[in-house]
Amino acid sequence: MSMDTLSKQNSKNFAEYPPQILRRAEVALRCAPFTVKLFANMAIQGVNLRAIAGNEGIKNQYSTKPTNLISTENDLLWLIQVGVLRREVDGQGITDSFRLTPMGHLLLDKWRSQTRFPIASLGDRCQNFWAQIQISRFL
Question: What is the dihedral of CA 11, 16, 45, 28, to 10 degrees?
Answer without folding.
Answer: -170
